[in-house]
Amino acid sequence: MTAFIEEHRGEFGVEPMCKILQIAPSTYYNRRAIVRDPDRASARAKSDAAMSLKIDEAWEDNRKLYGARGSIGITTDAFLALSDTSHPQKQRRRSMQT
Fold it and tell me: What's the half-sphere exposure (Cβ side, CA atoms, 13 Å) at 60?
């Protein structure tokens, strides 16, 4: 949606398009800021991007033969490696267990 607004902002303006599309202008500006500076993205967004790269890598390594079901088996280890310590609740649970 931000790409659409970006494409037509000169013609219609950001705020009127946001009103019609029913999104807050701050959402549009926040997304633009993240594109310019990826460090502003949330931890979850960064984690999702990292996982997406792992899934793409596994799919490429397996000659692009697997669909969603096959990819899940391949990427489970990668997912566990990424998600094991990244979530704050998991970090708290782990510290409580030791």
Answer: 6
Q: How far apart are the first and last CA of the chain?
A: 46
Contact 56, 47 (CB under 8 A): no
| Region of residue 68 (left: phi > 0; alpha: psi -120 to 50; beta: else) | alpha
List pLDDT tens digits, range 20-72. 999 999 999 999 999 999 899 999 999 888 888 887 887 787 777 766 666 56
Which tokens in the block code for residue 82? 């990424």
Predicted TM-score of the model (pTM): 0.53
| C-alpha–C-alpha distance, residues 67 and 98, integer Å | 40
